[in-house]
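Review form for a predicted model. The reviewer records the input and the model, then writes brief findings.
Reviewer: anonymous (R2)
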Amino acid sequence: MSELTVVARSGRWMLVDQDDAELGAYGSKAEALEAAGDFARVDQEPRHVLIQDDAGDWDEAFVAPRPLN
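Model under review:
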């Protein structure tokens, strides 16, 4: 099971956790995946992210932790 999911909804890309709680809305899939990297920063482990587009098709990505500035 994935911890995070990026779902296209009404022209926005939603970052959703495993409990279906919305963590944020983004203008692009890339921005939503970048935000998923913030969650990976907590324990410095990559996150498995499921991606569902507007057509209902699924993909997946592994997102590395974003570096601290």
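Findings: Residues 4-63 form one domain.
Further findings: The chain has a mean pLDDT of 86.
Recommendation: see findings above.
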